[in-house]
Amino acid sequence: MITNTLPKSKFGKWFNDRLPLLTLRNHLTDYPTPKNLNYWWTFGAILTFCLVAQIITGIILAMHYVATAGLAFESIEHIMRDVNYGWLIRYFHANGSSMFFLAVYIHIFRSLYYGSHKSPRELIWIIGMIIYFLMMMTAFMGYVLPWGQMSFWAATVITNLFSAVPFFGESITNWLWGGFAVDSPTLTRFYALHYLFPFLILGLVILHIWALHIPGNNNPVGIDIKQPSKDTVPFHPYIVLKDLFALLIFLLIFAFFVFYSPNLLGHPDNYIEANPLVTPDHIVPEWYLLPFYAILRSIPDKLLGVIAMFASIFVLVILPWLDTSKVRSAIFRPIYKQFYWFLVADVIILGYMGAMPAEGTYLLIARVATAYYFIHFLIILPFLGIKEKTLEVPLSITEPVLGGSSNQTMAKDNSNLRDNL
Amino acid sequence: MNPDASVKALASTEVDISRVQPGQSITVLWRGKPVFIKRRTQEEIDSARSVDLKDLKHPEKDEDRAKNPEWLVTLGICTHLGCVPLTDKGDYKGWFCPCHGSHYDTSGRIRKGPAPTNLEIPKYEFVDNNTIKIG
User: Which residue of A221, A238, A342, B35 sits 20 to 30 Å from the alpha carbon of B46, by its own alpha carbon?
Assistant: First the structure.
């Protein structure tokens, strides 16, 4: 399917015969991509940028940071005040995680809308979910490193989730902490893992892209296309330039946070050094974890709350088999399209409730939203796939266009075109 | 990844309690965790002892929780997700955890909120009249 532009030089041929790295280059040049990809498809490239940027800024920060309870907080201030452009690197890294999650949420919801998780792309989706889970763990452990009050209590609350495990709870938490409470050994091991995980993510991203390049990209119409054909364009320059343009816009928003309100998404309590004797009045996780936090708190039982929280992520992993509809894109699924937006609203509501105190009306709304979240995936999706009357799907990307109208139903009717001719 | 020898070496702490007045409470650090030592007033002891066990989520008699009724020693860690509860706050005048709203009474027993069990009682003993050894 991909035309091999083999190396022309003698050395190039010699090298490529032994290690076909240069053949891989085709995946960045000739790789056929559907020509109707919209801007929601640019977030893969944006995410790759985010990962690389986090790794580079992270390595520089690691050169100046000290992962010991007595020195961590001080070393962060040292980075902010003394290290050359330390403030810039740290703000870029800290806001980078928020931008990373912003992009990943758009990327995930794009998949849900256009059915990119469905056959034959289930493995791409599952690898993506593992990446997402590792991202959450990495972000959480990174949040602990400044060793402020929010860091310390985030570490305490999250590691205590494991104390809900029957019988082994206490042994597990002591093993995680390397002590009897969150303390210096905990900080040091979180630092080691925070450094490791991004490279695991990088490896999984390679698998994610590899698995993507087997069936090729999904597209807004959600149909299988021939590659290459009239329906595709080469990755370079078409998609490369489009991705770069989208990245530029993304970086404008990124720069707004880094340069104009670097602490907007942070919490002032994290500029107070960790104190195991005082819990801040109101502890909240970073915004990107709030929906899960709301699910955790909405269940009155400790163990069941923890199970519900992990289940809310696991349900996404098995989504390709819960969503039974053969039609991928929501464009042709009028009822799914409505439920899709209900889900988006539901997740935003959950996020808002996660930031509010867990009492009274807030708690009630959080419980309803939690229930709806699971109903959407476990009941509505399997049922809808069987019952929903979908619109007619075009045979190719070009068909509706040549039909002369953006209206898919009119486009099917080619007599229109023939009459005009 | 289990606790190393240097961590385990700090496994017990002795506390001087001679200056704690009735009604006062102090917080000390033991194994990196806060421990509440509260010298209870008669009123607080009475309210803790008069509770019907049927009203408790995790039924324990106050007599079993405080060897010496005047002194209550508990871990200062909410049994829900490990925050430090605030002393003399909440609906039951004992402790209140600000993280997820658990209320404890003057015996450190859970009365309301998501915490599953009472505040844990660490192993401790009175070395003499003025000293408690925790651990």
Answer: B35
